[in-house]
Specification:
Helix content is 37%, strand content 19%.
């Protein structure tokens, strides 16, 4: 059993890992992430205390499945590419998507998270780990910049300060010839309501960057344009959840201010 001692933003990965593990045990699993289930059984931690109720675990899987779909679509159109998975935590996307031999995939996260990944997940060709916070500029020097890039940042932007996030996107844009960014973001109202987010509070993390629409993102660099902005409440699969959560989703779909609180963006990086 691997012992862990995480607090703040890195600790929130335990909630998402648990959600995927619970989903994997369901007879109508969304993500079928058995590697997440195996990982929870090898970590010395009480996952029932991460702030996610078993009946709501599918929300994590539904979101991740959407990002898996966007990732597969990009790699279908770009046989040779770089994937940057920022703030990867214990996500097993590289194994779920199983990219082809012409794809170089980099998972980036804090050193203690990378160390845990090395212990629990197998190596594979074309896959590398970078042990670093995403905000320093030097880690990007290790990534080739001669191919189209897909940048995946699930559950990351809200933990960055606004200028950190904008500068991160600028650096990546200027490093690559073309590509896409796919990530989720909270609105400014969503950031203000972080005290109601149990996994965040239990991890003693803080949310900072709220994004109120695609205009704030495309203003970061003239080579960026938004192709998709999907409310998290509009994803398919919520019928699997307990009645109280289904009711919340129904209300959120009716109220624009709630519908915009959590949005999944896809940005195109033009040449």
């Amino acid at each position: 059993m691997e012992k862990i001692d995480l607090t703040g933003a890195p600790a929130t990965m335990l909630a998402t890992l648990y959600g995927k593990a619970v989903d994997a045990q369901s007879p109508d699993s969304v993500l079928h992430d058995t590697m997440a289930l195996d990982a929870t059984r090898k970590i010395d931690f009480d996952f029932t205390k991460v702030g996610i109720k078993p009946g709501d675990a599918a929300t994590v899987a539904i979101r991740s499945l959407h990002f898996d779909t966007w990732t597969r679509e990009f790699l279908r159109d770009h046989r040779e590419a770089i994937v940057l998975h920022l703030g990867c935590g214990m996500d097993t996307r590289v194994y779920r998507v199983d990219p082809g031999p012409s794809v170089r995939w980099f998972d980036v996260d804090y050193p203690d998270v990378v160390e845990l990944r090395r212990k629990l997940f197998p190596e594979r060709d074309g896959y590398e780990l970078i042990a670093s916070s995403v905000t320093p500029p030097d880690w990007l020097e290790y990534v080739p910049g001669d191919l189209p890039v897909l940048v995946v940042a699930e559950g990351l932007t809200m933990y960055l300060r606004q200028e950190e996030g904008r500068e991160l996107l600028r650096r990546i844009v200027e490093h690559f010839p073309s590509g896409q960014f796919v990530f989720d973001a909270f609105s400014k109202r969503g950031i203000k309501m972080q005290k109601a987010n149990k996994p965040v509070q239990i991890a003693k993390a803080t949310l900072y960057w709220g994004i109120d629409g695609a205009d704030e993102l495309v203003s970061i660099h003239p080579r960026l344009r938004c192709t998709d902005a999907v409310s998290a409440f509009d994803l398919q699969g919520y019928e699997r959840l307990r009645a109280a959560y289904r009711a919340l989703v129904w209300v959120a779909r009716k109220l624009p201010v709630m519908r915009r609180m959590a949005v999944m963006y896809r940005l195109e990086l033009s040449t």
